[in-house]
Structures are given as C-alpha cells and as structure tokens.
Write a structure and sequence with these properties.
Blueprint (H helix, E strand, L loop, with lengths): L1 E4 L5 E7 L2 E6 L5 E8 L5 E5 L19 E2 L7 E2 L2 E2 L1 E3 L5 E3 L11 E7 L2 E6 L3 H6 L4 E9 L4 E9 L10 E2 L20
Antiparallel strand pairs: 1-2, 2-3, 3-4, 4-5, 6-15, 7-8, 9-10, 11-12, 12-13, 13-14
Length: about 190
C-alpha cells in the first residue's frame, strides 16, 4: 500500500495486487476511485473508471469510482415530497439522493497490504436527517483480479433502524468492440 498526497492536502491510497492497481480515498466516502489492470502487452485496462477532470472538492458530483450509498439507495419520498423520508417516529426529515455516505467523512479503522476498513463519522446535519445510534462500515479487500466490498451496519441501540446500503461501480464497459453492457455479468 502506498499513500499518495494530492496538492490539495488530500491523501489517497494505492494498492498494487499482481496485475491490478486500486486507488481509494478512504476518508471521503470510503470511495474506491479506480481499478486498472495491467495487460500482458504492458498496456493498462481500466476496470473502474475515474474521470481525469474530477473536482475533489465536490465528491458527490463525481461520476466515477465506486460511490457508497447509505442510509438509502436512490431517491426518498415522504408521500409525494421528494428528498424527504418519514422515520419510524413519524417525523419527516430531509435525505439527499443516495444518502450521505458517498461524500461523508470516514475514519480509517484498518489499512493493510490488501485493503482497508473505514467507519462513517456522521456530521451534525447527517445525524439530524438520520437520528440513530449506529456504526456504518465499508471494507474493501483487493485481490489480483477481484475486489470484495463489505458494507455493514452495527445497531448500537435497541431502536430498529431502517436502512439500505449499496454501491454504484462505474465499470468501464464494453471492453471489446461489438459487445454491449448486456454481454457482461457480475458474480
């Protein structure tokens, strides 16, 4: 694992696992930014795309990498009111599309030669829109030709927590001319 300092004071991390190289920003959204694969001819093939002109000051707007979606995936509605949700206590609260984890602050819990685990540190405004006592973790395990992504929620109270976590890998497809996305599968 190698630490990469950006001119903006941001620290990224890079893992080289055989033919694969993974770059992540664990403290912002626990985000895998890119995954590339070195081919036999020495060229690189992008598996997960990261745009060259990405503005790291606005991570939620970046269309690349693997944004983590939590506490909800997609849009939320309270009745017909988009961008809100009604909790078990019947209180209507705001909720950004895809939740707030994708640009949330994460605390790195572990880093190794094969990946990392980070825990969400919700801000005051995030706690207002999702007022539960929990620990949400994102763990990546990098291998030469694969990655494993583990999303877990630990309820630290007796109150039931409504939640749905997901991720949105920006895979570079198609890889071969004449093929379409429908010709690929994820196991």
């Amino acid at each position: 694992m190698e630490r990469i300092q950006q001119g903006t004071g941001i620290e990224l991390m890079r893992w080289k696992r055989g033919a694969s190289t993974f770059v992540a920003w664990p403290t912002c959204g626990a985000r895998l930014m890119s995954w590339s694969l070195e081919l036999a001819d020495g060229s690189d093939r992008e598996v997960i795309h990261w745009p060259e002109n990405a503005d790291l000051r606005a991570p939620a707007k970046i269309r690349g990498g693997n944004p983590i979606l939590f506490p909800f995936v997609a849009r939320t509605f309270a009745g017909t009111k988009e961008g809100f949700w009604k909790g078990p206590d019947k209180v209507v609260r705001p909720m950004p599309r895809h939740g707030f984890a994708r640009d949330g602050v994460f605390e790195i819990e572990t880093v190794s030669q094969t990946g990392f685990c980070a825990k969400l540190s919700p801000s005051a405004s995030q706690r207002e829109c999702y007022p539960f006592d929990y620990a949400f973790r994102v763990e990546y395990r990098f291998e030469e030709l694969s990655t494993e992504i583990i999303l877990s929620l630990e309820n630290q109270d007796v109150t039931r927590i409504p939640w749905c976590a997901g991720h949105h890998c920006y895979f570079t497809l198609p890889w071969h001319s004449g093929l379409k996305r429908k010709h690929y599968q994820i196991n």
